[in-house]
Write a structure and sequence with these properties.
The protein is α/β, with parallel strands linked by helices and 558 residues long. The protein has two domains: 291 residues, Alkaline Phosphatase, subunit A (3-Layer(aba) Sandwich), CATH 3.40.720; 234 residues, BPG-independent phosphoglycerate mutase, domain B (2,3-Bisphosphoglycerate-independent phosphoglycerate mutase, substrate-binding domain, 3-Layer(aba) Sandwich). An eight-stranded mixed sheet has the order 7-8-6-5-4-9-10-11, with helices on both faces. Helix 10 links the parallel strand 9 and strand 10. The longest helix has 25 residues. It starts with 11 loop residues before the first strand and ends with a strand. Its EC number is 5.4.2.12. Monomer. Catalyzes the interconversion of 2-phosphoglycerate (2-PGA) and 3-phosphoglycerate (3-PGA). Required for guard cell function (e.g. blue light-, abscisic acid- (ABA), and low CO(2)-regulated stomatal movements) and fertility (e.g. pollen grains production).
Length: 558
């Protein structure tokens, strides 16, 4: 163990469960459990495979927690998300996550004593401090109150000129809420100006169209942001950010607002990034900041023409990729997610195959392995990425690549080359985020079909399956009051919920290879995603390390 400075990755044999079974680990993205009504797309959709698993309750089907403290988030009101969900699934322990670590560092003021802040503050005297990130209180990638504290703290510590580059949300929060967030920020900046700090919003755009792409799905998204934030160029120019967002919302929702820059009376951008400036990307979550971090930090970079590469002092709110050490400077140390189940399993002879399509590929690899890119051992692992559709919203293609993922998993299972075949099936989540109920129903059906393909293959080889999800989304598509009734807006329209939820998620085990007597324990009623890793290790024939959250299963003598 780590105490001796030397980690032993040898796992003990499970006293009752055999090794050598082929195991499918299926993660349905955005698939929670909620009351069956017309806004529950999983209920409305035909999902015979997932329905049949439910019949195994309570021994082989149950619910587990996927939000709040169970996944290391600050409060029980925090909905789950893919990063914390897959971290917990893969690491088998609950780590205080980025959101919480940033809260603590801001509350104690330690954020200002760290190397990262000292580094950027060297630019305060002569340069501008630029803050780039998601503007909402969603708590998935960033939080407004953290931005507010950072603005205050940085200005008190000498930042004289500050520019904020906002990315509007509408995905973790209600569509349309961007206007209010920009107004709040404008008020804060006005207060700073009263104190003599030259603080303004400089540019903006919707998160899904500007900057926050992930896993290199579409570099144009990042380029659009670069042009606005760094070069000060965008198709839309406004004098005022509230006006910009209101106007651009006439033709797009918050997630997809086109890029805009704020200009002065001479039509000149008020905040391009230039030599000598400091830049902080304020998101704590990694996946959708990595691409921008590369553009800001790498000297050799050929993903798009940056035109001008300013000499800046750049820090991330966190370090986003532990393996790439990206970015090299950061304000808050990320959670140290070590000794993940993936790392243990390769050391114990378990050959692993992982697959999803681009938009979720890093979830079953990077997040699963504790925010670490690459293989632990390329001889033992194969990760396959199926290219996602680019440049569309997924309600247009709600089936996404579910069947292709199913096929790849099936082939990997049948090949006999792997002991664990792990997939993420994205549909419930990606289509759920569009708020399109009809399309989300189609999405859920497609996800169910993909699960069937995988379970059929497991049946054929005498293997074991474990099917679960990372957090809720498609099971509830409307905002509700405390008693669960759908809420209407001022115009009497339903308030569509594009975000994740706080609902629990299902977990099911089965397959011909599952030893008789294996069943879910009844004494882990509060089990959550972090309990899954020990469970999977048991199914591979091993006992999990002592400090892992306990297994969900037991073997009854019969
Ligand atoms: O799309 C994303 O970035 C988040 C929502 O903000 O979803 P998920 O956690 O499922 O990846
Ligand atoms: Mn997810
Ligand atoms: Mn999501």
């Amino acid at each position: 163990m780590a105490s001796s400075g030397q980690v032993s990755f040898k796992l003990e044999d499970h006293p009752k469960l055999p090794k050598g079974k082929r195991i499918a680990v299926v993660v349905l993205d955005g698939w929670g459990e909620y009351k069956p009504d017309q806004y529950n797309c999983i209920h409305v959709a035909q999902t015979p495979t997932m329905d049949s698993l439910k019949q195994g309750a309570p021994d082989r089907w149950r619910l587990i927690r996927a939000h709040g403290n169970a996944v290391g988030l600050p409060t029980e009101d925090d909905m789950g998300n893919s990063e914390v969900g897959h971290n917990a699934l893969g690491a088998g322990r609950i780590f205080a996550q980025g959101a919480k670590l940033v809260d603590l560092a801001l509350a104690s003021g330690k954020i200002y004593d760290g190397e990262g802040f000292k580094y950027i503050s060297e630019s305060f005297e002569k340069g501008t401090l630029h803050l780039i990130g998601l503007l909402s209180d969603g708590g998935v990638h960033s939080r407004l109150d953290q931005l507010q504290l950072l603005l205050k703290g940085a200005s008190e510590r000498g930042a004289k000129r500050i520019r904020v580059h906002v990315l509007t949300d509408g995905r973790d929060v209600l569509d349309g809420s961007s206007v209010g967030f920009v107004e709040t920020l404008e008020n804060d900046l006005a207060k700073l100006r009263e104190k003599g700090v030259d603080a303004r919003i400089a540019s903006g755009g919707g998160r899904m169209y500007v900057t926050m792409d992930r896993y290199e799905n579409d570099w144009d998204v990042v380029k659009r942001g670069w042009d606005a934030q760094v070069l000060g160029e965008a198709p839309h120019k406004f004098k005022n950010a509230v006006e910009a967002v209101k106007k651009l919302r006439e033709n797009a929702n918050d997630q997809y607002l086109p890029p805009f820059v704020i200009v002065d009376d001479n039509n000149k951008a008020v905040g391009p990034i230039v030599d000598g400036d400091a830049v902080v990307t304020i998101n704590f979550r990694a996946d959708r900041m990595v691409m921008l971090a590369k553009a800001l930090e790498y000297q050799d970079f050929n993903k798009f023409d940056r035109v001008r590469v300013p000499k800046i002092r750049y820090a991330g709110m966190l370090q986003y990729d532990g393996e790439l050490k990206l970015p090299s400077r950061y304000l808050v140390s990320p959670p140290e997610i070590d000794r993940t189940s993936g790392e243990y399993l390769v050391h114990n002879g378990v050959r692993t195959f992982a697959c999803s399509e681009t938009v979720k590929f890093g979830h079953v690899t990077f997040f699963w392995n504790g925010n670490r890119s690459g293989y632990f051992n390329p001889q033992m692992e194969e990760y396959v990425e199926i290219p996602s559709d680019v440049g569309i919203t997924f309600n247009v293609q709600p089936k996404m690549k579910a069947l292709e993922i199913g096929e790849k998993a099936r082939d990997a299972i049948l090949s006999g080359k792997f002991d664990q075949v792990r997939v993420n099936i994205p549909n419930g989540d990606m289509v759920g985020h569009t708020g399109d109920i009809e399309a989300t129903v189609v999405a859920c059906k497609a996800a169910d079909e993909a699960v069937k393909m995988i379970l059929d293959a497991i049946e054929q080889v005498g293997g074991i399956y474990i099917v679960t999800a990372d957090h809720g989304n498609a099971e509830d598509m409307v905002k509700r009051n405390k008693s669960g009734e759908p809420l209407l807006d001022k115009n009497g329209d339903l308030q569509i919920l594009t975000s994740h939820t706080c609902q629990p998620v299902p977990i099911a085990i089965g397959g011909p290879g599952l030893a008789p007597g294996v069943r879910f324990r009844s004494d882990v009623p509060n089990g959550g995603l972090a309990n899954v890793a020990a469970t999977v290790m048991n199914l591979h024939g091993f006992v999990a390390p002592n400090d892992y959250e306990t297994t969900l299963i037991e073997v009854a003598d019969n």
